[in-house]
Amino acid sequence: MNLIESRIFAGVFIYIALLFPASAWAQSELPLPIVFEDYPPYEFVEDGEVKGMNIEIIREAFSRMGIKPYFEPRPWKRALFQLLEGEILALSSGFQTKDREEFVAYPSGGGLGMEINCVIIPADSDLKITSLDDLRGLRVGVVRSYVYGGGFDEIEGLNKIEAGSTHQLLRMLLKRRMDVAIGNKMVFRYLALKREQESSLQFPLEIAREPLHLMFSKAYGPRGIQMARDFGVALEQMKKDGTFDAIVSRY
Q1: What is the pLDDT of residue 238?
Q2: Domain match, 27 and 56 both
Q3: Host domain of residue 14
Q4: Same domain, yes or no, for 57 and 134?
Q5: Quick one: 62 exposed, middle or buried, by C-beta within 10 A (0-12, 13-18, 19+)?
Q6: Is 219 found in the same domain as 103?
Q7: For residue 1, what pLDDT is reported?
Q8: Partner of 208 for a Cys bridge, out of 34, 42, 85, 149, CB 3.0 to 4.6 A?
Q9: Which of 3-7, 34-38, 147-151 has the lowest mean pLDDT?
Q10: Tens-place pLDDT, residues 107-119
Q11: What local confidence, expressed as pLDDT, does residue 198 receive?
Q12: Which of 209, 224, 240 represents a domain boundary (last residue)?
């Protein structure tokens, strides 16, 4: 192929790529990864394989879109920044907030798995937690850059101790480096079970119950926004035909 033919071929390829929306990536690899934090049983890596409730839901939805997704684990704070900058296609999974709506395209369909955030204390703790006001004066453990909902994030004056991940937060709580932790009940139970410490925790107060979402980067441009729309359509179909509930029931 000579230079002129090469340029013509390249021009035709670019023209075709611009013609087709995200949904036309029939059985192709995504140009950028879907990133997740290790957050079992929603998203995690086991024996080198990416698994989890939300991962299964995402795979099925993308299969219906004719696209093969690929996943990469990264720390949450770094992943949020990369989502803002358009360095990744999407991040699984987080709450929908007004601040995030500035840089996130949220799919329709009602979200992925439900997150139930609670106040968590050691099983032998004497603390009585019946409201968020009871957290004042305590060392309250949270994961850096997480949003918890239920009014917790807006409380001022709390003595917050930040961890880099839920794994670290659990370890710090059990070592009494904090009085209470805030986190997802299902995740804490799963991690405690893996450590054979499932009886070491109490969950005295639920603070929020909201769906998690696959968050698409607006900075990725029109193609990413279209993918978010297509994903929402696929998710709605899965909820109508029972596939969504079948996946959730396994966890």
Answers
A1: 98
A2: yes
A3: 3-113+212-249
A4: no
A5: buried
A6: yes
A7: 45
A8: 149
A9: 3-7
A10: 998 999 999 999 9
A11: 85
A12: 209
Both 226 and 191 in one domain: the answer is no
Does residue 91 contact residue 34 with C-beta atoms inside 8 Å? yes
Question: Helix 185-194 crosses helix 166-174 at what angle (to 10 degrees)?
Answer: 70
Find the mean pLDDT for residues 76-87. Answer: 95
Q: What is the pLDDT of residues 147-201, one digit of tens each?
A: 999 999 999 999 999 999 999 999 999 999 999 999 999 999 999 999 999 899 9
Report DSSP letters for the chain, one per residue: --HHHHHHHHHHHHHHHHHS-GGG-TTEEPSSPEEE--BTTTBEEETTEEE-HHHHHHHHHHHHTTEE--EEE--HHHHHHHHHHTSSSEEEEE---HHHHTTEE--SSS-SSEEEEEEEEETT------SGGGGTTSEEEEETT----TTGGG--S-EEEEESSHHHHHHHHHTTSSSEEEEEHHHHHHHHHHTT-TTSEEEEEEEEEEE-EEEEEGGG-HHHHHHHHHHHHHHHHHHHHTHHHHHHHT-
Radius of gyration for the alpha carbons in the chain, expressed in angstroms and rounded: 21
Whichever domain contains 31, its CATH number is: 3.40.190.10
Q: Are residues 98 and 175 in the same domain?
A: no
Residues 53 and 175 in one domain: no
Same domain for 81 and 179, yes or no, is no
Euclidean distance between CA atoms 145 and 18, whole angstroms: 36
How many structural domains is the chain composed of?
2
The answer on 242 and 129 residing in a single domain is no
